[in-house]
Structure formats: C-alpha cells, structure tokens
Amino acid sequence: MSMIKLAIFDMAGTTINENNIVYKTVQKVINDLGYQVSLENVLKFGAGKEKYQAITDVLINCTNSVSVPREAETAFEAFKHALREAYDKLEISTFDGMLSFFKKLRENEIYIVLNTGYNAEIATKLLAKLDWKIGKEIDLLITADDVTKGRPAPNMIYKAMQHFNITDVAKVLKAGDSEIDIIEGKNANCGITVGVLSGAQTRNQLEATKPDYILNVITELEDILID
C-alpha cells in the first residue's frame, strides 16, 4: 500500500491532452496587441499559472510594454472569450490509460484531485467534454477561483488536504507539466513531486526545479505508487 493518500494532478498537459491550446490562445491575445511573442516564451513564463498572471508575466518578460496592467486586462478579457470558443469547438482527449490509472489509484485508497490555473468555468467545461465526474473518475476539482493565491503558492494543495482531512503533507503527491506545478508542490512540502513531459515544458526546464521524478506521462506513476 502506497504511503501517498492524496494525488494532486494538473489538468491540461498532465491528465488532459488539449495540444497547448490555452497557451496558443495566450500567445494570440498578446500578439493581437501588436507584439511578436513566441509560443516558447509563453510556455516559459506563463505555463501553469492563473491565466491573468500568466499574461501579465509574459508581457513583463517578453515585451517592452509600458502599460502592463491595462494591456493584461485587455488581453485577459479577449483570452476568456477566445478560449471559451476554442474549447467549444476543440476535440479534447485524455492520455492513453488515464481512466484505468485513476481507477487503480482509487482502488488503492488514493484520492485523486485535479488542480488548475484555469477558472472554474473553463475547468468544468473540460471535465464535461471528457464526461469526468467528481465522485466517479476523480474525487475533487480545485481551480484558481477557489483560492486567494494561485500557484506557486501552496493554497490549492492545502485546500485539497483540508477537504479530505489529511494533515501529513508527506502523504501528498503533486504532479504537473510545468515548473510552477513542481514549485507549488515543494512550497507545500509534498512528499513527492513529479514533472511530466506530456505538456508545456521540456525536461531541462522541469529538471531545474528538481522534482522527485520526471515521467513521459502521468500514468507511469502506477508502477511507482502501487506494488
């Protein structure tokens, strides 16, 4: 039986395959302001963050904007509309073996929480498109709307622990496809932190944050967590 009792997984790029559409949308709304920001830099400075913060940080680090707050607000409003439209049209899928992986974890008394820098509207839309239900495929969803401080602050992790009355952070695993996921897990002192290569960032980027494991896909955790 695994010492881990609570597995907290990022959504896009970790458990859900949406081909980086969120960051391509961030790139588009920023470049619509007259910039030429690369997707690589959007992923470098924005991956995993609450999306207004992501837009702000990309503007700060990748443009010569002298009015970041105003431009970030404009871009974020455009982003919400554009992403809503994209997700309405886009085919969303999960990575191979995800549901059997979830089932195996839950059979071994490990709670599954999805946490995300998305707001509740977008996150709920993604779950609906996959027909994932809380209490069936997963145990809890926590979004950027549920906390006052998003990643890399550990608030979403603490909220999940509180929900399941887990007080020992050594029993918590945090996994995601971006540096900020791993930093979030380390800021919470999680027992295990995991980076995955199925989403936003590269092995070199993830290695910089020193996770306990770097995996190709999250389902490889089954061999680590379950005897």
Poorly predicted runs: none
**Looking across the biggest beta sheet, what order are the strands in?**
5-4-1-6-7-8
Helix content: 40-55%
Shape: globular
Give Rg in angstroms: 17 Å
Please, how many helices?
Answer: 10
CATH level 4 superfamily of the largest domain: HAD superfamily/HAD-like
Average pLDDT reading: 93
Quickly name the level 1 CATH class of the largest domain. Answer: Alpha Beta
Total number of domains: 2
Would you give the CATH topology of the largest domain? Rossmann fold
Give the N-to-C terminal Cα separation. 7 Å
- Give the H and E element order: EEHHHHEHEHEHEHEHEH
> What can be said about the biggest beta sheet?
6 strands, parallel
Strand share of the residues? 5-15%
How many strand units? 8
Structural class: alpha/beta
Q: Architecture of the largest domain, CATH level 2?
A: 3-Layer(aba) Sandwich
Characterization of this structure:
- By secondary structure, this protein is α/β, with parallel strands linked by helices.
- The chain folds into two domains: 6-18 and 94-225, Rossmann fold, CATH 3.40.50.1000; 21-89.
- It contains ten helices and eight strands.
- The strands form two sheets. It has a six-stranded parallel β-sheet with strand order 5-4-1-6-7-8.
- α8 links the parallel β6 (172-176) and β7 (192-196).
- α1 (21-31) packs across α2 (39-46) and α2 crosses α3 (51-62).
- The longest helix has 22 residues, at 68-89.
- The mean pLDDT is 93.
- InterPro entries: HAD-like_hydrolase_sf (IPR050155), HAD-like_sf (IPR036412), HAD_2 (IPR041492), HAD_sf (IPR023214), PGP-like_dom2 (IPR023198), PhnX-like (IPR022468).
- It comes from Marivirga lumbricoides.
- Pfam families: HAD_2.
- This is Phosphatase.
